């Protein structure tokens, strides 16, 4: 009888630890996942000329996360998390998670999946339209369908009914956390100037409607099979690159 009681207690302890109601060491977990993601592809970022100060500043920049959003082939909004900065932001702000691994994470791709136990709302911006969504889960797979490509983590969001259509597949947009109903983000094609007086074309996003761009995203074509996307934030008038993504063609 005593053996059975001890055995049951052990099973309960293992089950609870696997579910992880609150991550005890978020930084340790992040570092363990970073070791699985190749970082040798990261390139130097052009320095952009200063602009007018607007929404982001030294006091509030850490309170928000801005990422590059896309629509998957399955019509789901998602964001690449190439450098795991999205995961880091979410774990710091919301440590209550459930983690699964292997086939429990995904039957085919396996890997590691993180779900947040509390709802984390987010704002999506596509084609100058704003949509409210919520974080669904973060996933770093072990298997890829595309040979000789780097496996990057994805952060998936809940579907948006009036956005998820086949015509939208692949379009690029913006994701902003935390969500606020007061945000009415406007976007437009813009050009910025580097310190070397080169002109770069991309998309500008105005978060607080003061006609000053708060975010700038542009794509650099590397070769026929790869492109490199950079996201800059206007922080107190200085353009700071805070997000990058390597897009690889699946052949």
Describe this structure in words.
The protein is mainly beta and 251 residues long. The protein has helices spanning 2-19, 26-34, 85-93; strands at 65-71, 77-80, 97-101, 112-116, 121-126, 129-140, 154-157, 172-177, 186-193, 199-206, 215-223, 226-235, 238-248. It has a 6-stranded antiparallel beta barrel with strand order 1-2-7-6-5-8. A 5-stranded antiparallel beta sheet has the order 9-10-11-12-13, with no helix packed on it. The termini are far apart.
Produce the secondary structure layout.
Blueprint: H1 2-19, H2 26-34, E1 65-71, E2 77-80, H3 85-93, E3 97-101, E4 112-116, E5 121-126, E6 129-140, E7 154-157, E8 172-177, E9 186-193, E10 199-206, E11 215-223, E12 226-235, E13 238-248
Antiparallel strand pairs: 1-2, 1-8, 2-7, 3-4, 4-6, 5-6, 5-8, 6-7, 9-10, 10-11, 11-12, 12-13
Q: What does the overall shape look like?
A: globular
Reported for the largest beta sheet, the result is: 6 strands, antiparallel, barrel
Percent helix range: 10-25%
Number of strands: 13
Mean pLDDT: 88
Q: Which spans of ≥5 residues are poorly predicted at pLDDT below 50?
A: 1-18
How would you classify the helix and strand content by structural class?
A: mainly beta
Beta percentage is 35-45%
What's a concise summary of this model?
The protein has 251 residues and is mostly beta strands. The protein is built from three helices and 13 strands.
Key traits:
single chain, mainly beta, 13 strands, 5-stranded antiparallel sheet, 38% strand, 6-stranded antiparallel barrel
